[in-house]
Input
Amino acid sequence: MIEIKDLRKKFDETEVLKGISTTFETGKVNLIIGQSGSGKTVFLKSLLNVYEPTSGGILFDGRDITQMKREEKQILRAEIGTVFQGSALFDSMTVEENIMFPLDMFTNLTFREKKRRVFDVMGRVHLDKAGRKFPAEISGGMQKRVAIARAIVNNPKYLFCDEPNSGLDPYTANVIDDLLVDITKEYKTTTIINTHDMNSVMTIGEKIVYLRLGIKEWEGNKDNVITARNKNLIDFVYSSELFKELREYFLTNDKTSIENIVTNPKTDEN
Ligand SMILES: Nc1ncnc2c1ncn2[C@@H]1O[C@H](COP(=O)(O)OP(=O)(O)OP(=O)(O)O)[C@@H](O)[C@H]1O
Output
């Protein structure tokens, strides 16, 4: 579980995060949404201590990163898997070498044990045959799966993803979403995902935090999004006609989860 207490971040005189408090539970997929510039990336980087918060607390299962010494932060860092925008793979390393990197960084495992772990996670993300390839030789969706394999190879307690679906077609984006959900359940990670993808919001958001101008404007889950009355949230989430129609459908027809509507759209036949 990660608890955020009145988190503030200023750059010079500009306050970008203006006192955010929330809780992200273990084994759940938590989404951060919000307009461009609302502070999602600064929020995620503050949790990771890439940016030092100006004030507030960030408790990883009770351990406040803002109060930690350098060595304690390093121990915590090894418990966090990250998937950054654009996958951030090393171009000159093979898929296998990319995935092994955190084990080289954070563990004293033997080469044989590292190799075994790398093969295990490659199987988990269905990349068994790509180990010897370089990032430039595989598709964008495969690159994301390499980034996810690298993030989970050291059995993280916490998984942070910044726009894991960006640049992917809708089908591949769903595959990545499903993978992140499965991994969250299997590894019991506290997963936090920054996303612009409204399909993800409707299908995998067990908790959704909507940031606006650096404050937490709304929080809830994927079903609450449909019935929410917050005007700013509605304008943001339902900026497309399709989602407006889905919301109308949900509110006027039945109380089926929006997930069913998105994944099994009703037709005249059914
Ligand atoms: N290192 C920095 N120094 C100063 N200001 C920054 C820095 N990083 C971000 N900001 C400012 O903080 C605000 C929030 O930026 P942030 O990147 O968190 O937005 P975002 O919600 O992630 O946007 P997007 O969806 O476009 O990625 C912006 O006004 C940005 O200019």
